[in-house]
Design brief:
single chain, three-stranded antiparallel sheet, binds succinic acid, alpha+beta, eight-stranded mixed sheet, 27% strand
Length: 297
């Protein structure tokens, strides 16, 4: 029997009483899945998982994705996307050093965006006893519920375009600016034409009904939404800025302070998330698996 303890007001819960390195019986898995969809973000402390065990557990939720950035996949485990500021013996980054700079939901620019992501904390930076590199999650379903009715009717009709191209170009420009200002340097090349061509822009409704919970949520995010359709870019930018400010209000946000051995999963249809980069030169190493979700319309 698992225990579920709520961690945030609208989202986030700790699940205890389970060892994810062991095969789970169907009943325990069903309890975990139910807690996951109810709480949108769930985490398990003190897990000891090999990459194969993380893959086996998350695969129970569906088909795993291999990230478009091949250079950041774990050797021999294509399904694991490595997030880290660590370098190998030759000075080369062992994973993506800059994933999650903007609020986003994973792979939301795809026709079949991710449903679930699972992040396993292998190394966590600690300074003066305090964990650094926290991850923030915002519930876009709670944010939708809190909109006035007139606003709900308006956003229900809106469509938006998610663009990997615009995201990568914006992210790259921000990295160059960080480097120029001496804030942080990451090993990332400008996106290649092949990478950009491999993930075309996707137009979809702003409001998405969750296939499991049937709750409505705002499926827009600062990282990947390029524009709202049917209006000028300036109008779109202004409207999006208001909606982002609404979604990321503290009452809809859960902040996770990591411990080594945490396995945390979030529902990309219901929440968006953002990383923090306050820990260099302390090492941080995380392994992420993502489960493909249903197609957007
Ligand atoms: C991500 O966007 O998946 C990265 C989150 C993190 O590293 O905190």
């Amino acid at each position: 029997m698992i225990t579920v303890t709520r961690a945030g007001k609208h989202l986030g819960a700790e699940i205890s009483g389970v060892d994810l390195s062991q095969p789970l019986d169907d009943d325990t898995f069903a309890q975990i899945a139910s807690a996951f969809f109810d709480n949108e973000v769930v985490f398990f402390r003190n897990q000891t998982l090999t990459p194969a065990q993380q893959i086996a557990f998350t695969r129970r939720f569906g088909v795993l994705e291999a990230h478009v950035r091949k250079e950041s996949r774990l050797a021999d485990h294509d399904e694991i996307f490595v997030l880290s500021n660590k370098l190998d013996a030759g000075g080369k980054a062992i994973g993506a050093q800059d994933a999650g700079r903007y609020w986003h939901s994973d792979l939301s620019y795809k026709r079949e965006p991710s449903m679930l992501s699972a992040l396993y904390a292998v190394e966590v930076p600690i300074k003066d006893g305090v964990a650094l590199g926290n991850t923030y999650f915002a519930s876009s379903t709670a944010a939708y519920d809190a909109l006035p009715d007139a606003m709900k009717q308006r956003v229900d009709k809106l469509r938006n375009v998610h663009s990997y191209r615009e995201y990568r170009l914006k992210n790259y420009a921000a990295q160059q600016e960080d480097e120029r200002r001496g804030i942080r340097t990451v090993q990332e090349h400008a996106p290649t034409p092949e990478q950009l061509a491999s993930v075309p822009d996707t137009e979809m409704d702003v409001v998405r009904t969750h296939p499991v919970t049937h709750r409505k949520g705002l499926f827009i995010n600062e990282g990947h939404t390029a524009w709202l359709t049917g209006m000028s870019r300036a109008e779109s930018d202004a409207e999006l800025a208001k909606l982002y400010a609404h979604i990321t209000q503290p009452e809809f946000v859960y902040c996770h302070a990591w411990r080594v051995g945490d396995l945390l999963m979030w529902d990309n249809i219901a929440v968006q998330h953002k990383a923090t980069f306050d820990y260099d030169p302390l090492p941080r190493l995380m392994y992420r698996t993502t489960v493909r979700g249903p197609a957007v319309v």
